[in-house]
Write a structure and sequence with these properties.
mainly alpha, Arc Repressor Mutant, subunit A, 2 domains, 13 helices
């Protein structure tokens, strides 16, 4: 193994240990000295790779985002209707938010302008390029869903369909983030104390109504959602960090 490969392997090791620390301690509680201790490298070695704690956070977010990329690509390659790919992606987002709020926090913090300003331009640009790539991948799925699975848009030209796809995508992520944040905070149970723990029911109901608003005419949407969540669980199980058993294996 040459020097460049050794450096890359060392950086991967530091990032993996840092994700574990962030998961256990959070960003505010974690110190660079904790990273050095956990990884077995000196402070000088840590800073030779990452100029600041924020720089290291973006590297961790990039690693997790690569997991999301593999998830997106697997779903995109499935032989299922495009609207079901949208649903499956949304359910993956929901499941990950519910099962791994510690990892979602890393991703959320990496989007904060205050973090980007204290990180290196290289880390910030690399993460941004990956986000753009994921957005384009998903947008392609949405455009096909509008063409093939939604009613009322056959008169739209290509530019109009893409504009509509941007609106649908924006609304979808807003709904996903809002519903998962509400469920995590306990706000839903406060508003609806008699609903017990029905956060997934709230997610499904709101998402069905959202897609119907865009022209989805499925007669048995609940059955589709049941089918899609099985696919979502299977796809998450193939990831390095978001599958519970894989996460424990990495941390061992």
């Amino acid at each position: 193994m040459n020097r460049r490969e050794l450096r890359e392997q060392r950086e991967i090791s530091i990032v993996e240990k840092t994700i574990q620390l962030l998961s256990a301690q959070g960003f505010i509680g974690m110190r660079m000295s904790d990273v050095a201790k956990a990884s077995g490298y000196s402070m000088g070695t840590i800073y030779s790779h990452f100029e600041s704690k924020e720089d290291l956070l973006l590297a961790c977010a990039y690693t997790l985002c690569m997991d999301e990329k593999s998830l997106f690509l697997e779903i995109a390659s499935l032989s299922i209707p495009d609207v079901e790919k949208i649903i499956t992606v949304a359910q993956c987002s929901w499941l990950i938010s519910m099962q791994h709020p510690d990892l979602i926090e890393i991703d959320s913090l990496s989007l904060m302008p205050s973090v980007w300003r204290r990180a290196t331009e290289y880390r910030a640009e690399r993460l941004n390029r990956l986000h753009v790539e994921l957005a384009q991948t998903f947008l392609g799925i949405v455009v096909k869903a509008i063409e093939n699975d939604m009613n009322g848009y056959f008169k739209l030209d290509e530019a109009e369909r893409e504009k509509l796809a941007h609106h649908l995508t924006h609304g979808m992520w807003g709904l996903c983030v809002g519903l998962s944040s509400t469920a995590q905070s306990g706000y839903a149970s406060t508003l609806c104390p008699k609903s017990d723990d029905e956060s997934y029911v709230h997610f499904t109901t709101n998402y069905i109504n959202f897609l119907r608003g865009y022209g989805w005419k499925e007669e048995s949407p609940e059955i589709v959602f049941e089918r899609c969540i099985e696919v979502a669980n299977r796809c998450i199980g193939n990831t390095a960090w978001y599958a519970t058993d894989n996460k424990n294996r990495i941390a061992a």
